[in-house]
Amino acid sequence: MAISFEIPERVLQEREMLKSVAENIMRPESRYLDEHEHQRPHSFIKAMWYVLRDQQAKALQKLTNGEDKPKREGPGITYVRMIVLAEQLSWGDVGQYLCMPAPLLAGSAIEAVGTKEQKLRFLKRFAEGEPKWGAMAMTEPGAGSDTSAIQTTATFDPETNEWILNGEKIFCTNGKLALEESDGIVVVWATVDRNAGRAGMKPFVVEAGTPGVKIGKVEIKHGIRASDTAAIVLDNARIPAENLLGSPEVIQREGTAGFKGAMATFDASRPMVAASAIGVGRAALEFLKEKLAEHGIQIPYGVPYHQLSAVQRDVLEMEMQLKAAWLLTLRAASMLDHGLHNSLEASMAKVKAGKVVTQVTQKAVELLGTMGYSREWLVEKWMRDGKINDIYEGTGQINLLIVARRILGYTSRELQ
Ligand SMILES: Cc1cc2nc3c(=O)[nH]c(=O)nc-3n(C[C@H](O)[C@H](O)[C@H](O)COP(=O)(O)OP(=O)(O)OC[C@H]3O[C@@H](n4cnc5c(N)ncnc54)[C@H](O)[C@@H]3O)c2cc1C
């Protein structure tokens, strides 16, 4: 399949607008929010809510009219647009970007496995009223990379036509914003049959205000300190039957299990994480080049390698790695826009970008000497912020495992 690496003009214009948000709203608040964890980026939230609420309303209108499918004359640009925006806002400040009032991961899950009725019902709240957040809760104290180990149970009560959820989720991005600070939603993964492994895992939409749902510990973190990461306790939480995304049926077949929904969610969200990583890396690289230029060090292009200084080579290597990660990310997103299956490409992009942002931000700190390590500049913060991209949405190792399985043709049981 041919993929164009041109970003559509409309998206580039939107990126310019978001660059202004990044420079004028996010960057000035960056250090304050880093040093005052759990305070909210109110200016950013307010600015984004007006934009996103309108966009959500238009998307829902299209869905209602049956116009949500890609048009005949060509593929859509939904995912390419999303990665461009994620990259630009993360260049501004990734912690604030994660506080974007939108369906976020809950939206990806609903999009991937929800019915049209569910999309309209759950996403409507993001098109009206006050800012709201969506989140997804998979991780548990005993289940991180090995998601099949989740212990949260969902038991059906035929008398009330409800699912009863019990368990504890941890490290849920925007969990508190979604359930305690807004009328948002969290897609909670629970098992309807513990003996069925991944086949028994199902996503349930838990709405703010549901009795039996409480926010537990809110994490104090190494980076992305403007973003809220919370535990969610489910104690006999009753969820209407129609809040289960997909079918309640447990099908024991590799690739067709309940987990398929989670994979479809990650296919959409991993390119976003990769793009976000690249935004942080670009912030560090641009800052480094600016500081080097102040000291008379320019980065020449088209000059033989042996004529470059060690610092110039380092910078070119950083730039090249970021570009490679971006091209993989663009491919993964573009495939989704073309309606193609992109699990392999989404994991490839995520692995690459997670590693690259870690290396690039560390190298920037290193090359900037003592000031690189100082809190006077944001570069040390970008180094802390960048690392998360190698952890959530599947760690670097797990995504590498997915890539290996797909290339070599092994199942998850055969290659662990
Ligand atoms: C800030 C933050 C926000 C998060 N947000 C969310 C969220 O919104 N929703 C959510 O559900 N989760 C979230 N998470 C959880 C995140 O997805 C998990 O941390 C991640 O999946 C890894 O799980 P773990 O931390 O339990 O590590 P473990 O699974 O215990 O792994 C520890 C280490 O071992 C490696 N490892 C494990 N298995 C293998 C293997 N088979 N082969 C090779 N290496 C392996 C891992 O790569 C890792 O380096 C968040 C985490 C953080 C830190």
Characterize the structure shown.
- With 416 residues, the chain is an alpha+beta fold.
- It has 3 domains: 119 residues, Acyl-CoA dehydrogenase/oxidase, N-terminal domain (Butyryl-Coa Dehydrogenase, subunit A, domain 1), CATH 1.10.540; 110 residues, Butyryl-CoA Dehydrogenase, subunit A, domain 2 (Beta Barrel); 150 residues, Butyryl-CoA Dehydrogenase, subunit A, domain 3.
- The chain is 50% helix and 13% strand.
- A hairpin with a 4-residue loop joins β2 and β3.
- The chain is globular and about 75 Å long.
- The model has no long low-confidence stretch (mean pLDDT 93).
- Bound molecules: flavin-adenine dinucleotide.
- The site of flavin-adenine dinucleotide has 20 residues, from β1, β3 and α12.
- Flavin-adenine dinucleotide binds next to β1, β3 and α12.
Strand and helix layout:
Elements: H1 9-35, H2 42-64, H3 78-97, H4 104-113, H5 116-123, E1 134-137, E2 153-157, E3 162-173, H6 175-179, E4 185-191, E5 201-207, E6 213-218, E7 229-240, H7 259-294, H8 310-337, H9 343-367, H10 369-373, H11 379-386, H12 396-408
Parallel strand pairs: 1-4
Antiparallel strand pairs: 2-3, 3-7, 4-5, 6-7
Helix pairs in contact: 1-3, 2-5, 3-7, 3-8, 4-7, 7-8, 7-9, 7-11, 8-9, 9-11, 9-12
The chain binds flavin-adenine dinucleotide (FAD).
